[in-house]
Amino acid sequence: MTTTESQQIRLSSYPEGMPTHDDFETVAVELPDPGEGEVLLRTIYLSLDPYMRGRMSTAKSYAAPLELGDVVVGQTVCEVVASASDRRSVGDIVLAYTGWQTHAVVDARHTRRLDPADAPISTALGVLGMPGFTAYAGLLEIGRPQPGETVVVAAAAGPVGSAVGQIARIKGARAVGIAGGPEKCELLRRFGFDAAIDHRSPSFADDLAAATPDGVDVYFENVGGPVAAAVVKRLNKFARIPVCGLVADYNATAAPTGIDRLPGFMRRVLSSSLTVRGFIQDEFRPTHEAAFHEEMPRWVRDGAVQYVEDVVDGLENAIDAFQGLLTGKNLGKLLVRVGEVPTT
Amino acid sequence: MTTTESQQIRLSSYPEGMPTHDDFETVAVELPDPGEGEVLLRTIYLSLDPYMRGRMSTAKSYAAPLELGDVVVGQTVCEVVASASDRRSVGDIVLAYTGWQTHAVVDARHTRRLDPADAPISTALGVLGMPGFTAYAGLLEIGRPQPGETVVVAAAAGPVGSAVGQIARIKGARAVGIAGGPEKCELLRRFGFDAAIDHRSPSFADDLAAATPDGVDVYFENVGGPVAAAVVKRLNKFARIPVCGLVADYNATAAPTGIDRLPGFMRRVLSSSLTVRGFIQDEFRPTHEAAFHEEMPRWVRDGAVQYVEDVVDGLENAIDAFQGLLTGKNLGKLLVRVGEVPTT
């Protein structure tokens, strides 16, 4: 048989602060033929997500860190190019977790078949995939928005945030999105958010107050930092804070000094009977995945949930794109198109 | 009719830090006769509780602050000495909210009749009253201890903490109490806690680790400060933190400087899928009060929940006793015996 070469991006050092090209190495490896039960995959789309920064650190997190020399992790949409499994056929499009590489050999059971007739295959990495599910489960299970309540979400132009706001509206709540810059705010208005606020504006705090005249009942937290501090001031009694991510802090190299805000925050938790709940979407798969796969595709087809994708061409541009993700440069779900998209 | 004089302790200035005698004034007022529907009460027991410190501050809290000149608030057990209501008779023992004074005239509907045959009347201010209910509802509704889990509570020798640990054991969990000094720790062992740890010991952190070999699943927070910081390090994934009080911070006059611990705490909330939930016991009255009044007296009669009271004689000693409460000097539920206890 012909051997297949895979281009891989591996972690070569744990980044201090923002990851740089020096923290990665690109290598080419010869892949073996798929063994019994395995498939050879060609990567079409690689998803870039903020959680990856956590894997590049040895700090305690919800998942083990990458070892130096590991291929950087990531969810992918791939085409099966060789199969030694009766579960998958050559030409199948699958969801896999093969990371930052052009090809991989994996156990066929670690793939999920996608039907390109159902939805564009890239959506399995975004609105119909992990980010969409994160929004759906975290908002509905922890946030529990009620009709007439106000839901605030930051990074609202991202794939999680934009779904949070749109699902909040489906549930009858008022959706206020926070994003960086006028282009993202315009996108939020197009998505039907009741208000869109630019956190880079000097009038941010006033704009937030004006957009939340009845206070805030749900703050879907995926940012942290000064944006979170401003929203916390607006929280109502019994407000809920699903804590999904803290991207503003992901590159922090040391605990910030100055005022210790923890005692004040805890006093606020007490005085306003707040619920603060960290979560990783996996937790809710058993309870919410079936409903998600039933409701979310319908909402997307109906136009109740819209999305945009930001597609970067070529695996060699993944590092630059990932840096941009951590500084909010992308508009919508960030994907790397690693290989040709099949015509269907 | 004869007029009745009430000795009252009123707030004369908002304390900076620890309240002092200068923040209060003692005055004698002539009370009117009870009007239609009212009763004249003679205070027997006054309850002293940490929440009162919050009422002596204009900082945002869950209840409006006292105005300067107001009688300091507090729950009391009183005897009805005159009645213009068909709801209450002279000689009735009632639970009321008449505060730091020897007598008061109140609407009879704002009293609850106690039956001295059921339990010592002082317990209506402690294990069978608000502190006991706080422990019961906060632990069971937010903490949700499961058999085999580890529950940690600080201020464990206090009326809330001691009930938390003992209810945790009833539910099959392991109870670890934190308290200040060997006398309190000895009390916790007598109450059946699985471990009692002295936070004043230089080996506190090591002792805590040794007492929680499987980590901590529920941390019932009523202290804050360095004790809380040590427990947070031991929290397991999916741990629950009912936030009931933060007595270590109640006298803080400014936000502490140094390291800002909030970002690190939020990262921990995220990485361990923690639930942090502030609460005031009132919230759970509609859902849990009936069960509390059914279960708790039974547990007390059975000896499954034990309690101690720390009784200070004379309203004139309330200020000193309250200072002692804020620094942990009392052992068990702190009460002021304001007037003679009727013999039954």
From TrEMBL, chains A, B:
Keywords: Oxidoreductase. InterPro entries: ADH-like_C, ADH_N_2, ER, GroES-like_sf, MDR_fam, NAD(P)-bd_dom_sf. One of its GO terms (molecular function) is oxidoreductase activity, acting on the CH-CH group of donors, NAD or NADP as acceptor. The keyword rRNA-binding does not apply. It comes from the Bacteria. SMART domains: PKS_ER (SM00829). SUPFAM superfamilies: GroES-like, NAD(P)-binding Rossmann-fold domains. Gene3D superfamilies: Medium-chain alcohol dehydrogenases, catalytic domain (3.90.180.10), NAD(P)-binding Rossmann-like Domain (3.40.50.720). Residues 22-336 form the Enoyl reductase (ER) domain. This is NADP-dependent oxidoreductase. It comes from Nocardioides silvaticus. The lineage of its organism: Bacteria, Bacillati, Actinomycetota, Actinomycetes, Propionibacteriales.
